[in-house]
Amino acid sequence: MSRVLLLDHDETRHALPFDELLMAVRTALVATSRQETSAPPRIAAFSPGGLLGAMPGYVPGLGLGGKLTSVFSVAGTEGRSRHGGIVALFDESDGTLQAIMSAEAVTAARTAACATAAFGALSPPDVQRIAVVGAGVQGNAQLELLAHLGLSAQVVVATRDPRSAAATAEHHQVRAAPSIRAAVSGADLVLCCTDADSPVIDREWLRPGAHVSSVGGSRGPELDDATVMSGALFIEWPGAVSCPPPAGAHELQRVPAGRAHLIGAVLSGEEERPPGELTVFKSTGYAALDVAAAATAFARASERGLGSSVSL
Fold first, then answer.
1. Is residue 262 a contact partner of residue 121, using CB atoms and an 8 Å limit?
2. Cβ–Cβ < 8 Å for 247, 193
3. Helix, strand, coil shares of the chain as percentages rounded to 5?
């Protein structure tokens, strides 16, 4: 038997400092673009109310891991889902189980970090206005990371429910927009963080040269076809285009082969941001990012004495 570190939701979150998580996520994205990772497409079992997905992955130098997570709609709400599950981290050299932690905390943090790494590489210079669409777990995680970055840009929040947007904006001390269109119009950076099953923005609302990030859409397309097809398109891993949902993106199923570029190649300097163009980053999430977050959480929790240890 080996000793295994157990981290609950709050312990997992506290073991994911933003700067270290961003570095690990960038490492995983660059390694993916260089074909150094192993992350097979997500598989899922479906029930009437949701799904249970499984995602194993390996990133050299970070570890070997897997996520088992459920995604179920929240009754009585639109565009909201509940995610629950675990992430397990194994030693990459001998396969020893090292840690088990909260999948919800890992997913929220690594997704926000991935979107942040992407917009850091793709956003136009001198961003003045940032629109965050969504006020659920992922929207809040993105707003927390934006606050940590200390950007001078104005941040506005919008959802399909103005009351939810107002409450979230007050909590994060940013502005609430009366509608999604009002938030997006004129924004240099648009961060879509919803669980909507239909597009939440329209290409006509976007200013020339803006950057659009979409991390939601597990139940359907979060972006409209015109936005996807008119912008320079970037993804985390090839399966975002080549695999059907739930591994690939709903929005990318009709995208021609070769049109989408790996964001890791931009982060490594092997590709450049197209000057002056609308850029679109479509995130589906994949196991290499979970490994990056889990490795970060395990290292920090071990240093700080977080969690409890059991024999398995």
1. no
2. no
3. 35, 25, 40
Which token pair is 307?
Answer: 């969690």
pLDDT tens for each residue of 80-94:
567 789 999 999 999
Q: Which two tokens stand for residue 75?
A: 């009754």
How confident is the chain (312 residues) per 10-residue block, as mean pLDDT?
93 98 98 97 91 95 95 64 88 96 96 97 93 95 97 96 94 96 96 93 95 90 95 96 93 92 97 89 97 98 96 89
Rounded distance between C-alpha atoms, residue 258 and residue 273, angstroms:
16
Q: Go through the chain and tell me how many residues it has.
A: 312
- DSSP letter assigned to residue 250: G
Q: What pTM was estimated for this model as a whole? A: 0.94
Q: Which two tokens stand for residue 76?
A: 């009585």
Strands 211-214 and 189-192: what pairing?
parallel
The token pair at 165 is 């947007």
d(CA 28, CA 22): 10
Task: Find, among 71, 3, 30, the residue nearest to 237 by Cα.
Answer: 30
In angstroms, rounded to a whole number, what is the distance separating the alpha carbons of residues 251 and 269?
A: 27
Q: What is the pLDDT of residue 203?
A: 96
State phi, psi for 132 to the nearest 5 degrees. -105, 120
CA distance 281 to 251: 11
